[in-house]
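Notebook entry, structure prediction.
Reason for the run: the old model in the group folder had no record of what sequence produced it. Starting over properly, with the input documented here first.
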Amino acid sequence: MKETINWIDPWWHLKQCAIKDAIQRELACEVGPEHPLWQCELSVIAKSEANDDVIVQLGDGRFACIHLTWSGKIDSQPDQFPSSMIFDNIESLQIYMNEVAAQYA
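New structure, fully documented this time:
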């Protein structure tokens, strides 16, 4: 049985839509050659209503939470921004999302 993510507030799952496409484009603008996620296949799957955090799935099956700057370009500190946290599996991602959700409950 495939594990699924429990999307709880403030997180919401993004299906194919204009918002998802815009976030995907912004992510491509912000992640440059010095960023830890450079050349990783990144697919936006969720957004936080509380801030500019997005959840992406990496091509190798891992996940990341990325805090977009919405600058439309690579940051002056490209190895640090956009800030990101990588999760090796769905369980660790869910624990993180639950902790964030508890702050907004």
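Summary: The CA atoms of residues 26 and 72 lie 6 Å apart.
The old model has been moved to the deprecated folder.
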